[in-house]
């Protein structure tokens, strides 16, 4: 595979053809924040926190670093006024869901995001999909999935699968940027383990 030279934050960086900007930056020791990326998973492009500015053929645009492939002579800026403004806004929207998530709070400090800008819709899940995709793509179990749509979208464990698979696995727990996943599992586990309700006539 041929080597591609590009520029990231003013430094020349060497990447392999087919790499994404995120991978090239990581190889060059340059950090780009991510919330939905995992090296073992297919690129997803859900959170857009990895947005960077690229310049090619004299035109500049904003792209998701975890999806955008490297190109010869591409000029990448991982921090700029525009990039920082977008990351700040994304974080403010996510903080409305998970205001107490440590990972979001740390990022909010870095980008000056206001935790209280948007009205709270505390579902705690920020829909990064890491748990769902990890369980499906790496573990091949599909024990956790999304239910509902739009703002009501939530994750949910499939009780029949979770009761057999999850207690001995739990590899998705550390992936979650909020506390939503563990809470959902604890709830599912409690429901699975609860004794069946007695019919009314027996009470
Ligand atoms: S529960 Fe956590 S890991 Fe799963 S989609 Fe929501 S935020 Fe992401
Ligand atoms: S890390 Fe790139 S879109 Fe989420």
Please characterize this protein's 3D structure.
- This protein is of the alpha+beta class and 203 residues long.
- It has three domains: 3-77, Roll (Ubiquitin-like (UB roll)), CATH 3.10.20; 80-122, no CATH class; 130-192.
- It has six helices and seven strands; from the N terminus they run ββαβββαααββαα.
- It has helices at 21-27, 81-97, 102-111, 130-138, 159-165, 180-193; strands spanning 3-8, 11-16, 51-56, 59-64, 75-77, 144-147, 154-157.
- β1 (3-8) and β2 (11-16) form a beta hairpin.
- It is globular and about 70 Å long.
- The N and C termini lie far apart (72 Å).
- The structure holds iron/sulfur cluster (SF4) and FE2/S2 (inorganic) cluster.
> What is the CATH top level name of the largest domain?
Alpha Beta
**CATH A-level architecture of the largest domain:** Roll
Which stretches are low in confidence, meaning pLDDT under 50 for 5 or more residues running? none
User: Which structural class is indicated by helix and strand composition?
Assistant: alpha+beta
Q: Could you spell the SSE succession in H and E letters?
A: EEHEEEHHHEEHH
Helix proportion of residues, in percent? 25-40%
Bound molecules: iron/sulfur cluster, FE2/S2 (inorganic) cluster
Secondary-structure topology with pairs:
Layout: E1 3-8, E2 11-16, H1 21-27, E3 51-56, E4 59-64, E5 75-77, H2 81-97, H3 102-111, H4 130-138, E6 144-147, E7 154-157, H5 159-165, H6 180-193
Parallel strand pairs: 1-5
Antiparallel strand pairs: 1-2, 3-4, 3-5, 6-7
Helix pairs in contact: 2-3
This protein binds iron/sulfur cluster (SF4) and FE2/S2 (inorganic) cluster.
